[in-house]
Amino acid sequence: MSGIPLYLQNSKVQRLDIDSTQRLRIERSDLSEKRIPLHLVSRIVCRSSLDISARALVACMKKGVPLALVDNDGQAIGWCMGARRTETTMRQLLAHALDDYEWNEYYSQWLLSQRQANAAQSLLLCIVPATSQARNNPRAALCNAHRQKHQQACGNFVNALTYLAQHELSAHLNQETGAPDLLAWARPGLNIIHDLGSLLSFHAHTDVHHAHLSLQKDLDKEAISAWATRHYEKHTMHWQQRIAQISWSFEQFLRNNWL
Questions:
Q1: CA dihedral (154, 228, 111, 131) positive or negative
Q2: What does the alpha-carbon distance between residue 154 and residue 157 come to, in Å, rounded to a whole number?
Q3: Which of 43, 56, 234, 238 could bridge to 18 as Cys pair (CB 3.0-4.6 Å)?
Q4: In degrees to the nearest 10, what's the CA dihedral of 60, 62, 66, 69?
Q5: What distance in Å separates the CA atoms of residue 45 and residue 17, rounded to the nearest whole number?
């Protein structure tokens, strides 16, 4: 995951274009134009209402720079992954696995075990007693713990962090497989990006619980998104380790059953 992510979610960002030297041109209403070499960018996250030139979009696709279009909450509306790469080992494993009639059974069991493990870890790190009620509904138990600590509802903070991690995870999985159709559209109801991304929400719970939110009350969606971006970038190495671990676990699941 080399390069830097580019976040264009602020409402003051008006247009994204690219010049003849392959530098992205970012136009804002409050600042002078900024130019960033495309080869330095790992992925782009932008508002769905942003004016994006066709040549900028094509340049991103050719360079394999994933672009996520998000709504006001930061949740992805869709992804533009770009040209497919040459087949990789994970792609071959995944294609083979999806052809197996036992895929649904194996995958659902593995995903459930991953959710339980991540939930248990987050409950432990947030010092929430692992009662039967908490184990049955860990998200509710974690949200209650956040409210008690920060004296406010923290769901929007958790979601904003989760969405950022999901965008990076989707870019990482696409780089590993080069097959967005297998990751999200291989069959009805299957969206591996969303499924694995949901595991990251437990890590977002942990971060929010230990963050300093005492001065962050009554923020609107854009301000929460800006807070999440600052927090995510400050802890980017930690988040990349989490994403790499989930990706590794998924690959091992494929190898153990279909190699």
A1: negative
A2: 5
A3: 56
A4: 50
A5: 14
* Sign of the C-alpha dihedral computed for residues 22, 43, 34 and 70 taken in this order: positive
E strand or H helix at 43: strand 41-47
Backbone torsions φ then ψ of 11, nearest 5 degrees: -65, -15
Q: Which amino acid is at 146?
A: H
pLDDT digits (tens, 9 = 90+) for 114-137: 999 999 999 999 999 989 999 999
Query: Considering only CA atoms, which of 115, 103, 245, 258 is closest in space to residue 187?
Result: 103
Cα–Cα nearest to 9, from 229, 254, 238: 229
* Sheet order of strands, 51-52 included: 34-37, 23-28, 13-18, 51-52
Report pTM.
0.79
What are 8-20's pLDDT values in tens digits? Answer: 998 899 999 999 9
Q: How far apart are CA 82 and CA 226, in angstroms?
A: 27
Contact 130, 124 (CB under 8 A): yes
